[in-house]
Amino acid sequence: MLSPGTLFDLLVAQEIEFFTGVPDSILKSFCAYIIDHSPKGNHIICANEGAAIGLAIGYHLATKKTALVYMQNSGLGNAVNPLLSLADKEVYAIPVLMMIGWRGEPGCKDEPQHKKQGRVMLAMLEAMEIPYRLITGDITTARKTLREALSYCREKSAPFALIVRAGDFDTYNLQDAGKSHLPLTREDAIKLVINSLSDEDIVVSTTGMSSREVFEYREKLNRGHDRDFLTVGGMGHASQITLGIAHQKQERKVFCLDGDGAVIMHMGSMAINGQQKCANFIHIVLNNGAHGSVGGQPTAGFDIDFKQVARAVGYRTILGAENEGEVMQALRMVNKSQGPSFLEIRVNKHYRKNLGRPTVSPIENKMSFMEFLS
Ligand SMILES: Cc1ncc(C[n+]2csc(CCOP(=O)(O)OP(=O)(O)O)c2C)c(N)n1
Predict the structure, then answer these.
(1) Closest to 159 measured CA to CA, from 103, 271, 264, 83
(2) Mutation test of ligand 1: which of 110, 121, 206, 207 has the most ligand atoms closer than 8 Å to its C-beta?
(3) How confident is the model over 173-190, as pLDDT tens digits?
């Protein structure tokens, strides 16, 4: 196994000093190490993986140096456009060292949303003509791999991908566990929202633990899962799925249970939610200021004012809550008011270690959900 600190030192020794990306569970320890050890300004957690490629391009233009961009392989899709139409040798020829966590590696157990992406990841890189190498094992091999990767990036002035497999890194825990004064956990907030729903209300929940918590709570209530669409992949797109439903089912209330990291990932969608003036559209952001599902790395969630953004883009009802009483009151308001509605619930980062995973397949989820909608 590779120590995150050793890899970080190897990178710095080879003049990789700027880090950006979107966190991933496989890269969790490495991300935590960068957060704790890179000097201020040398590490930016980006909105999405494409944006991270953009930052790496800007960094290179300004310094002539190569940045490291880390991501889960789900994020490769977000990165494809700036990689092919900007960084590519046939366009601006920008060196970028990518580090990609390989979820869904063939032969390894993983969730349904990771299987296809895991199977086609290397073929995607090949199609994009981006060379790659697994970075594993002992420090001597890692040093050699890194040297080869960087000489490719620098000589060809082009992107190169280092692939990290599950379990490749030793554990390193984020120093600032983000203990928060906020009384509610994300799961508490989800329970309060679900308890307030009427039987006809529709839920679309975001990628990561939120959907798992929704699933488990419905299980506990013995209510079935047909009211919920779990956005297990496609991080950042839950609100547009919600809008697509809300437009067609105007007599039903449609709730999006979103995450701060997910909203920020594709924040432009908020503009469309506001513009569309769908009276039955309710956007609830469970803001824990972190990518809670993949290691708790900070987002811009607590540094920005989501409510002001919602106001500026035209949501009609805008509310915030932090404790049970406020959440209950806000939900009563939401039920009485005209949408598009926005409710930010600020929560702490705590989560249950024994949280399960959906036992219903995505196709089963889709079939029962569509039945419920009709
Ligand atoms: C495109 C893409 N990039 C990265 C991931 C990995 N990922 C899964 S959940 C998650 C964190 C989501 O953060 P947030 O929306 O704030 O919700 P929280 O986990 O904090 O509840 C990340 C980064 C992903 N699934 N898809």
Answers:
(1) 83
(2) 207
(3) 999 766 578 999 999 999
